[in-house]
Design brief:
616 residues; ten-stranded antiparallel sheet; alpha+beta
Length: 616
């Protein structure tokens, strides 16, 4: 080291010494001042206390941080040099206290910064002194031991918000096994307490497991069952290939509509009534031939079907209870408690299994009223009203409303998983085939369906007595279901337009003077354009009795439209006309009392009121 470096280091050392001396002097000066003032005014100040305070002030200067008050359950217990030291001391004291895993401490420990300007905090610092970490650990351990000195070691079962305290591990196991014993009819399952992962955490989880001897038997049974199921599946696959002959499931084709009879017959000239118009022609009625054959069925008596019974016997070998546990997580905490809250086994069992009212929701379905809902949920109508503001009578509830209800539920519900095998009929989904010869909305069954029979194995989960879920494990079809086959129309429904631009009805469809007026009369001057209400083929174009000059259009689906009393016909028989195309001029021919158009719609030869079709 050269002379220059040595000189710089010496100067830096002198500076640091002067700075530390100045700081210590500033900390000691108030204490010396208090001592001198005490002798001057007659009050005595302990030099020892002031020296200790000054020493602690000097220490705080180098330790750093603000002093904190350590509070246990809201009361000041000690003062620490800073929060970090206080937290480390609390943690160490806690670990030392429950090092054997049997003495967890439940108390509220908090920290507050000391306010050096507050007189109360100054007094607290004088009263409690400021403890270093090791000393604080000792003080905390002493407090913990005294806290537990008048309490007994016990075991608290926690299920959601419910806690029940018993005296021993044996009591915990006994109460829980008593709870599940009503469902564990074969005494196959046992309750265990899972040892905590850390010896410093005295909290256990409840587990339910099969007893050792039952588990070994189950493993052997499962292997046998797996082999049996493989054989059943192979047999089923082989039988399904010949279950239904192909020609029996082949859809029938829809027949063509029968040809219609003669359409128009001329009225006599002497007929003076409007009924002459209806008399001009008649159509034959269609009759449908009923199906006289009986419906084929596969609904054999399940109990008498040997194949079904054989499959049932094989699949049901392994039926029965597979698990009996608890639906909610149960934790057991080992701790010290007052003797007054420890329950005997009988009381603990009663509290664990007695239903308490839990909030629930009921969804209103069609047909519900308050009395029916009350019966369903086991409440009174008045209680339902009290839980639901604005509900006074049946008029206040609607489909899909959500109503507040209470559901009696025990703190612990036993969870049972059970394997169940059963035979039942089942139905195949309906098969639809599009048919462009029928209108949308029209259907026709071309093959009747029939149910099949299958053997089903489910894993069913129960909460107490109530089924909560169901999962299908296996299915063997013994008799295959036959699907119903339905033709459905894809053709758009026809529309009818007004044959005249200005539509002013002078006489409606219906009976008058004891006779049927088969159409609608519309005001029209002679020579007014008449248009086709719907596209079709002209089957008549000329004079027809009381109709006078008349055009009849066949629309191809059993529907005809007629236009009577025309002055001029502009189409010919066999001609195809589009909707809205001009076909004639209106007039006053035939049996008519004045210029007008007589318009009819006939379906399968029967006249119908045209107005509903026109206004569609």
């Amino acid at each position: 080291m050269n002379k220059q470096d040595w000189k710089l280091r010496a100067q830096w050392g002198y500076f640091k010494s002067a700075f530390v001396g100045l700081a210590i002097g500033m900390l000691i000066a108030p204490g010396v001042s208090d001592i001198i003032r005490g002798y001057e005014d007659g009050t005595h100040v302990s030099i020892k206390d002031k020296v200790a305070d000054c020493a602690m002030s000097v220490t705080d200067l180098f330790v750093g941080g603000d002093k904190v008050k350590v509070l246990i359950d809201g009361e000041v217990f000690a003062v620490a040099r800073n929060k970090d030291e206080a937290e480390e001391a609390v943690k160490k004291a806690g670990l030392l206290h429950n090092k054997d895993g049997i003495k967890p401490l439940f108390c509220d420990i908090s920290y507050e910064t000391v306010d050096t300007e507050n007189e109360k905090d100054k007094e607290l610092v004088k009263k409690f002194k400021t403890l270093k970490k090791d000393k604080l650990v000792e003080e905390l351990l002493g407090r913990y031991e005294s806290t537990n000195s008048n309490k007994s070691l016990a075991y608290v079962m926690r299920i959601d918000d419910t806690t029940i305290t018993v005296n021993s591990f044996e009591d915990v196991v006994s109460v829980l096994e008593q709870t599940q014993s009503a469902y564990d009819t074969n005494d196959e399952f046992q309750v265990k307490l899972k040892t905590p992962a850390s010896k410093n955490v005295a909290m256990y989880e409840v587990e339910v497991d099969k007893k050792a001897e039952d588990k070994e038997a189950d493993d052997t049974e499962a292997a046998t069952q797996e082999q049996t199921e493989e054989v059943i599946k192979e047999q089923t696959e082989a039988s399904e290939t010949t279950a239904i002959p192909e020609d029996e499931t082949k859809p029938q084709t829809a027949g063509e509509p029968e040809a219609e009879g003669s359409e128009v017959s001329n009225d006599t000239e002497g007929d003076e009534s409007e009924n002459a118009e209806e008399g001009a022609g008649s159509e034959s009625e269609e009759t449908e031939e009923g199906d006289s054959s009986e419906e084929a069925t596969t609904e054999e008596n399940i109990e008498e079907n040997p194949e079904v019974q054989e499959a049932f016997a094989k699949l049901s070998v392994d039926d029965g209870i597979k698990y009996v546990g608890f639906s909610d997580k149960i934790e057991v905490v080992e701790t010290y408690v007052d003797d007054a809250i420890i329950k005997d086994r009988a009381t603990a069992f009663t509290e664990l299994t007695s239903p308490v009212n839990e909030p629930g929701i009921y969804v209103v379905v069609p047909g519900d009223c308050l009395s029916i809902i009350a019966e369903k949920v086991g409440m009174s109508v008045d209680d339902i009203k009290a839980l639901n503001d604005g509900i006074e009578n049946d008029d206040d509830i609607y489909y899909d409303d959500r109503l507040n209800i209470v559901v009696p539920t025990p703190p612990v519900e036993v969870l049972v998983e059970k394997k169940e095998t059963y035979n039942e009929k089942y139905y195949a989904d309906v098969e639809y085939q599009d048919d462009d010869s029928m209108y949308i909305g029209e259907t026709s069954v071309i093959q009747e369906g029939s149910p099949g029979v299958h053997t089903v194995t489910d894993m069913v989960t129960y909460k107490g007595e109530n089924e909560s879920s169901r999962q299908q494990l296996d299915e063997v079809v013994e008799v295959a279901a036959v699907a119903e086959i339905v033709l459905r129309g894809t053709k758009s429904q026809p529309t009818y337009m007004f044959p005249l631009t200005n539509w002013e009805v002078t006489s409606n469809f219906g009976y008058r003077w004891g006779r049927l007026h088969a159409g609608t009369d519309v005001k029209a001057d002679v020579g007014t354009t008449v248009r086709a209400s719907r596209a079709g083929q002209v089957t008549s174009a000329g004079w027809i009795g009381g109709y006078g000059n008349c055009v009849i259009i066949d629309h191809g689906d059993g529907v005809q439209t007629r236009y009577g009393h025309l002055s001029q016909v502009l189409v010919s028989v066999g001609q195809y006309v589009e909707q809205g195309e001009q076909i004639a001029l209106s007039g006053n021919t035939g049996r008519s009392t004045g210029p007008h158009l007589h318009f009819e719609i006939r379906i399968n030869g029967e006249p119908v009121d045209p107005l509903p079709y026109l206004y569609q």
